[in-house]
Amino acid sequence: GMSSVDLARLDQLPSLTEPDLFRALQWTPGVRKTSTVSGGLSVRGADPDQNLYLLDGAPVYHPWHAFSLVSTFQTGTLKNTDLYRGGFPVEYGGRLSSVVDAQMKDGSRQEPSAEVGVGMLSGRFRVEAPISDHTSFMVSGRRSYIDKLIGRTHAVTDESGRRDTLRTGYYFYDASAKLAHRFNDEHRLTVSYYQGRDDLDLRLPFDLSLDFDSWLRPADLFFEVEQNWTNRVVSARHQYLVSDDVFVTTTGYYSGYQAREASFVQPTTTASLTSDYGVRLHD
């Protein structure tokens, strides 16, 4: 039930923006998206929350940007990725359906290198370099620029001079880093870090008149939503080659996820609806 993802071929697969790991997994038999536009991965008909996503041995919760359009894993930072669609080993407990085990690059030990890319939704960079003969690092980052193109706030005015503010702020970013040190042929230590965030700030004042040329203008009916979610992962892994046939891997990690959604809807001049809830998870 295990298959390795050919990361070198991701550039050849159809993608909405930049090469994306999770979109490539949809071409694997038994894997599909629960929705055409958004939604998580469904493996052999299971629910998306029954999948385990690992980054350098640490679980990542809700690993999506842009409401499930883009995965949080930058393919350029990955060394290898294994997909278990069933019968996965006992160390991958905690989920019922599948395991996506992704490993980040250690960084080049030969010479420094840098890469910069621009996609439809975001820009990204990656830097790799050796520190010594036995130590190397890799740093990468990515950020969307939709909010920079269209702006976050827009003033709107009606015929009577009443003013309001239309808000269309949304962005996501992620950053990752890895430090690798090889003590000798038997001992190796790596430290990895990942952080990503999505932030939505939306306010839409609606005028329900039949004048569609100016339906976004100051009105008694408006809709506001503030939504954000953040992932932060730190992991350290020591690998010890005991003999040609036995090795021991020890992993310690912290994985934190938090999300918040607050909304305010005023459908009439005398009625309104407010909701505010949040989720916090520390593993």
Describe the structure.
The chain contains two helices and 18 strands. With 283 residues, it is mostly beta strands. Strands 10, 11, 12, 13, 14, 15, 16, 17 and 18 form a nine-stranded antiparallel β-sheet that branches. Strands 1-8-9-4-5 form a five-stranded mixed β-sheet, with no helix packed on it. Strands 2-3 form a two-stranded antiparallel sheet.
Radius of gyration from the alpha-carbon trace, in angstroms: 23 Å
Report the count of strand segments. 18
Poorly predicted ranges: none
Helix count, per DSSP? 2
Q: What share of the residues does DSSP label as strand, in percent? A: over 45%
Distance between the termini: 27 Å
Structural class: mainly beta
Amount of helix: under 10%
- Would you list the SSEs in sequence order as H and E? EHEEEEEEEEEEEHEEEEEE
